[in-house]
Amino acid sequence: MTVTAIRSWQSVQEEVRRRIVQRVWRPGEFIPHEMELAKEFGCARATVNRALRELAGEGILDRRRKVGTRVAVNAVRKARLDIPVIRDEIEAKGFRCRHTVLLREMVEPPPDARARMRTSPGEALLHVKTLYLADGMPYVFETRWINPAAVPSVIDEVFSQISPNEWLVREVPFEAGDFTFSAITSTPAEASALSCSEGEGLFVLDRTTWTSQLVITSVRLIFHPGYRMHTEV
Predict the structure, then answer these.
(1) Does the structure show a pLDDT above 80 at 92?
(2) Is the Cβ–Cβ distance between 168 and 217 less than 8 Å?
(3) Where do the structural domains in the chain lie, given as residue ranges?
(4) How many CB atoms lie within 10 A of CB 177?
(5) Same topology for domains 3-71 and 86-223, yes or no?
(6) pLDDT at 18 over 50
(7) Thinking of the domain 86-223, which architecture would CATH place it in?
(8) CA-to-CA distance for 124 and 112, rounded, in angstroms?
(9) How confident is the model at residue 82 (pLDDT cuts 50, 70, 90)?
(10) pLDDT at residue 23 above 90?
(11) Cβ–Cβ < 8 Å for 86, 165
């Protein structure tokens, strides 16, 4: 690849990866600073930054603030988990998707949710509970907190035409997040929402996403009995 061909962050990523694979930059070695690479490749520093962040997310680079970026000594390939649109997931299985907003309120969250959202006592957040249906059958029950300080336009969104999941994925960029997977036995409320037996085992996904300044949303997804998640590494 010639320098003149490097214009997108994907091209920068490809060239950096090539140099690592071919041992131009060896494990444990620091690579040039972003400004040096931007000058060499003839692109913006932000383009280089995006490429290096992606490679760090894959475990290929080790980035330390105020220290620098070096090639990982023991590169660990990481699973990449994107945030799916639930409607797309349901329709990909051949079902018709419909969502129903069961609750929408501005309220101060309980201490556990406030800790996840990193807000102060007395600060109200948008609390939304949504049931997603596949061909009329319960698919996933969603409990979500959204911070209006991070997403001001959510105040006017009632989610009648588009679900909270799809609206946030399409409208609000995020920089980072975390996922937690677990299993629970259904309480009477969850059994009622998902039309299953009380005490039945259910798959749960807890997810929080944020920008560098604020947490955007924290959501708990409780799936119907027998749900399976598949991903690739």
Answers:
(1) yes
(2) yes
(3) 3-71, 86-223
(4) 15
(5) no
(6) yes
(7) 3-Layer(aba) Sandwich (3.40)
(8) 14
(9) confident
(10) no
(11) yes
Give pLDDT, residue 77.
56
Both tokens of residue 230? 């598949």
Query: How far apart (Å, rounded) are the C-alpha atoms in residues 217 and 46?
Result: 26
pLDDT digits (tens, 9 = 90+) for 162-171: 999 999 998 8
CA 96, distance to chain mean position in Å, is 25
User: Smallest Cα–Cα separation from 42: which of 69, 11, 13, 4?
Assistant: 4
Do residues 53 and 9 make contact, with C-beta atoms less than 8 angstroms apart? no
More confident residue, 3 or 98: 98
CA distances from 228 to 31, 96, 139, 140 (A): 41, 19, 12, 12
What does pLDDT average to over the chain?
A: 91
AA identity, residue 94: G
Structural tokens at position 200: 């039945």
Q: Note the pLDDT of residue 2.
A: 45
Architecture of domain 3-71: Orthogonal Bundle (1.10)
What is the three-state SS of the chain?
Answer: CCHHHCCCHHHHHHHHHHHHHCCCCCCCCECCCHHHHHHHHCCCHHHHHHHHHHHHHCCCEEEECCCEEEECCCCCCCCCCCCCCHHHHHHHCCCCEEEEEEEEEEECCCHHHHHHHCCCCCCCEEEEEEEEEECCEEEEEEEEEECCCCCHHHHHCCCCCCCHHHHHHHHCCCCEEEEEEEEEECCHHHHHHHCCCCCCEEEEEEEEEECCCCEEEEEEEEECCCCCCCCCC
